[in-house]
């Protein structure tokens, strides 16, 4: 009871005007709201009422629909892009130069001697099998061979492919029971495959190749990786091309530069690479003018004669333009420069600036990527390539318990080699072919938000020309080793011109297409357009909703109370009244319940028994009946006035 | 078992996927989360289709007997016009003797389309090289070189004559250089001859996939001729398309860099080149969408032999808005040109189809370079003796945009474009040449009988530089929602008005206004009608017995009885409405907001 009173009081306080029923509340709302439309529902005739009701309903749904469209658009986090093109003084890109061959053959010969002899023997076996028996006397180091041998798979009978070890007859005859017919197969009948074994040679897979060239190249690469991974890095650096041998001349704009202006970095793929204008220790050099005159001019000597013959078949210089302080992934993004030519590269800086979360999945500095960046030792900025490589190395260490030679090593780990990790080739080959691994890494790594690409326009010409050849080679040779005889040739020299184009930048900048101001003004516009409403109208509506809730609560309380009362009444002595009794008791005062009158066949002549009494009976208004005050009050609160 | 262990075991048992490398729960969960997220943007790019052709269409040794006559005549023409091969002293005599030799075998090609040399300054004087005599030429002279080009006035120019059916209309096509003239002339006849060869034979005459591709490596995995689909191009012979959707799913790359792309070594075989048809050597490669037709002759990157060509790609996707924002077409179905190519719509396809259709319409036969429209065949001498004149005329009209093709064809709304960065390097290097060539020869095996030379080979690397993809998408600057909300904003700001206001205005000034007028008029009309149709009844007015009473007759009045004096009708007592009292109770309640204590 107190509760209800309190609630009633609350309702009165909340609103003095509107009334106590839903209907009153609605009428009051329609009359007083600032939203156009509802007012007209109540103050017109029935036809117009219906029409206005429909119109209001229609507009409300229209507004709701439009709002949902706008909110959805806003939540899609679209970006609009602004593009600007032009020329301005910009930092010249960092230029990384490598030789396609990682090492000078003359310096790594002692390491690769066994392997090269083996490779030659392999080639001999494949090309001229019948002669191979003659020079079997040559001593070959079969310890390398036995880890991952190359085999010939004879597929002439597709149901029973015969696997033939290339050196099966030399060191143990178990694999080749019938060597003579198998030896004579050609490329059509036989495929060369690499056998990769793990667990002491019990579990083996064959990595098939459709051509022998690929097979031997891959095999050699694997073996060379194994050898180089056991050599400490400082020795590898010494075996690579030194800067003074690779870079013969350098000119940046009008200023002369030399190999000392290049920062050296060791890359397993290409040995010593040299970076110009990396911006690590000193400020980056700007270039204020377009054109070849103001760019970087380089003359390189790649020394093709000293290439490791089986490791690289392509000759040239590798070149990559990249941002300052970023790690050069030259194998992925680099281009070639051919020897004996002058390669001119016009550069356009294509910069992309993304907005971060929630607009796109990019990362500002890689700190929120769950992969430890192994390239952070070089003090370089984050890039997705670095992340994917680090991720791969992480997986490699997890699965094969050693790191791959081509990727940097986390602290406390070791590079894979056949001696300590005999299964690594098998493991690596599995891992690198696994799609799941790649997808895991790709999903973990995010793109960098600021992405700079250097668009290049490459053109080439023969250099040096036939007329100038002699003196240029002479001068360059003498400068390099103070000797008078020419040591350079057309096969070795590369000339590079790198310069800004007339328009040197194109910046693509993202900005939010739909911001909160846009959203609000559109929401307001729609609401205003259809219904003339504003935020105040929404507040009004909210108020009404609260009132509704109040009324409902009060009604529910009253209902609960009435239920309780009924239960109390039901405790009276005597048999419970029938339904007819109850109905009659409410409507007729003069009613006497005729209980159990044993009439002859009750219901046969109902008319006879209930003949209407002529004359007007006193009006049986319900309200006239006297009732306990409590009940009346509860009624009045329910549906009064 | 510890509770932690138990949970661990339970999770491990219940997880639908098990991480292949997940020793701990944390990693397992991470693996699970990472591998089941589908909404994460996948940085995987579909590898485009790559079509590779040898520049030379057919092996010359095979096709030679078809072209023997043409070759002979070309050589004769060269000798007569330019003294090739260089035995200048005997030139005159040989030409003469050769002229006499013609008596036996008739020069059919030169007769059909005679090559002529004439000097520019004396127009009309033409030396027909076949007969050697000069004759007057009366006809139009069309320079194949543009009119804007200033050809050396004194130089002798070479051209050929094309005549229409009745040979009254002739056009002379001249070239500033004999190289162009001879090549164009040769090509015309070549097309004539090849148009009559059935397709199967042509495919057999060209290079097989095994022959063209020495090695193939995609994404670190070996591939071979089976991964390539054949596409026969009229001018390039057999072309092979890698990663064409027709036989498998589209391959994709998940890593950038040359080792994850396509690496092929091509066998160029310069010995089999047709000396008059193609003057350069190498291969052509084109990167395109799977459903796109590769227009090799128009857009292709040439590959040099004895070189490694590395092509780095960047993908740019463009989506344009169609009508009403721009004139582009989604799939070409609304362009009135039927697509004769078996490929998705593109502007190029539309233009070529349009030209071919017009060609069939005007000349009665189809041009050899393009596919055949239904119910048409390729032009050749036998059936269409003067098609060349027609073709040249039509081509001129096409170039001058007189055929209406350029107006009808529209660009496609979405297209993918691969920006290529091409760089060259020497391959094989000096030191690797020694071992590489023999092993490549072994790989090629029975396809060829000779030892490979490095100029017979070309290496090609096609790869994504990185997996960044650019999408250029047009979106409408103003949508209808924006327009309405801007309207609403302006209306509300300046007039505090809305559509409801407008409807109200409409309601008041049109509906209500007219309804009032209409009601008035209706009432007036009703009155008028009533007045007219109810003429004044004289008996009604004159009848004194008529007593108009407002009340209905009661029993008493009806019987005209005097009201009974003193008789009171027992009326009902005034009802004591519950509500009346209630109101009082309510108002009292309101005044003091105090509910009286209940009894």
UniProtKB/TrEMBL annotation, chain A:
It is found in: Apical cell membrane; Cytoplasmic vesicle membrane. It comes from the Eukaryota. The keyword Cell membrane applies. It is a multi-pass membrane protein. It catalyses: Na(+)(in) = Na(+)(out). PROSITE patterns: ASC. One of its GO terms (molecular function) is ligand-gated sodium channel activity. Keywords: Cell membrane, Cytoplasmic vesicle, Disulfide bond, Ion channel, Ion transport, Membrane, Sodium, Sodium channel, Sodium transport, Transmembrane, Transmembrane helix, Transport. GO terms for cellular component: apical plasma membrane; cytoplasmic vesicle membrane; external side of plasma membrane; extracellular exosome; sodium channel complex. Its main location: membrane. InterPro entries: ENaC (IPR001873), ENaC_chordates (IPR004724), ENaC_CS (IPR020903). The keyword Cell membrane applies. The chain crosses the membrane at residues 50-70. Residues 593-624 are annotated as: Disordered. One of its GO terms (biological process) is potassium ion homeostasis. This is one of the three pore-forming subunits of the heterotrimeric epithelial sodium channel (ENaC), a critical regulator of sodium balance and fluid homeostasis. ENaC operates in epithelial tissues, where it mediates the electrodiffusion of sodium ions from extracellular fluid through the apical membrane of cells, with water following osmotically. It plays a key role in maintaining sodium homeostasis through electrogenic sodium reabsorption in the kidneys. Additionally, ENaC is essential for airway surface liquid homeostasis, which is crucial for proper mucus clearance. Component of the heterotrimeric epithelial sodium channel (ENaC) composed of an alpha/SCNN1A, a beta/SCNN1B and a gamma/SCNN1G subunit. An additional delta/SCNN1D subunit can replace the alpha/SCNN1A subunit to form an alternative channel with specific properties. Interacts with WWP1 (via WW domains). Interacts with WWP2 (via WW domains); inhibits the channel. Interacts with the full-length immature form of PCSK9 (pro-PCSK9). Interacts (N-glycosylated) with BPIFA1; the interaction is direct and inhibits the proteolytic processing of SCNN1A and SCNN1G and the activation of ENaC. PANTHER family: AMILORIDE-SENSITIVE SODIUM CHANNEL SUBUNIT BETA, AMILORIDE-SENSITIVE SODIUM CHANNEL-RELATED. Belongs to the amiloride-sensitive sodium channel (TC 1.A.6) family. SCNN1B subfamily. This is Epithelial sodium channel subunit beta. It comes from Ursus maritimus.
From TrEMBL, chain B:
Keywords: Cell membrane, Disulfide bond, Ion channel, Ion transport, Membrane, Sodium, Sodium channel, Sodium transport, Transmembrane, Transmembrane helix, Transport. It is found in: Apical cell membrane. It comes from the Eukaryota. Pfam families: ASC. It is a multi-pass membrane protein. The chain crosses the membrane at residues 491-517. Gene3D superfamilies: Acid-sensing ion channel domain (1.10.287.820), Acid-sensing ion channels like domains (2.60.470.10). It catalyses: Na(+)(in) = Na(+)(out). GO terms for biological process: cellular response to acidic pH; cellular response to aldosterone; intracellular sodium ion homeostasis; multicellular organismal-level water homeostasis; sodium ion import across plasma membrane. This is one of the three pore-forming subunits of the heterotrimeric epithelial sodium channel (ENaC), a critical regulator of sodium balance and fluid homeostasis. ENaC operates in epithelial tissues, where it mediates the electrodiffusion of sodium ions from extracellular fluid through the apical membrane of cells, with water following osmotically. It plays a key role in maintaining sodium homeostasis through electrogenic sodium reabsorption in the kidneys. Additionally, ENaC is essential for airway surface liquid homeostasis, which is crucial for proper mucus clearance. This is Epithelial sodium channel subunit gamma. The lineage of its organism: Eukaryota, Metazoa, Chordata, Craniata, Vertebrata.
